[in-house]
Design brief:
single chain, mainly alpha, about 65% helix
Amino acid sequence: MVLSWLLNSLSKKIAESVLYSQSAKNLWSDLEDGFGQANGAKLFQLQKELSSVVQGNSSVVTYFTKMKSLWDELGALNIFFACVCECECGAKIKSLKAHQDERLLQFLMGLNDIFIRVRSNILLSSPLPSIGHAYSLVIQDEKQREIHATPAYSGKSA
């Protein structure tokens, strides 16, 4: 039953390559062998795309969503950060913080120059804030700009 469900969940071409698997476990192992390996070309493509993402004409939400989707896809391929060991020295926590700071800096570098003030405030924080907190600050700044850009009602009637 599980074997049938798995086969029906696959695209036709992939299903044909594992059609005669003896068990769901064998099918899953075959799929993992064929598709579960880190792909150097895909890692390269994602890193290259990530390095060229800038806000441009996009809203902050659209820009951040694009970056986050690339980070998530990269994270799914990159097994380096899957460490589950317990260490006494704190190296794991420091490594994770350095990784988060790197992503924060990528996000800030791609923002348009109109966010220079909020970017400077974020960079002056010690320690650097989380990506989520920095994103929130940038969104607030963007909303303030929208409010000030909207012309006020003059109160004159025709």
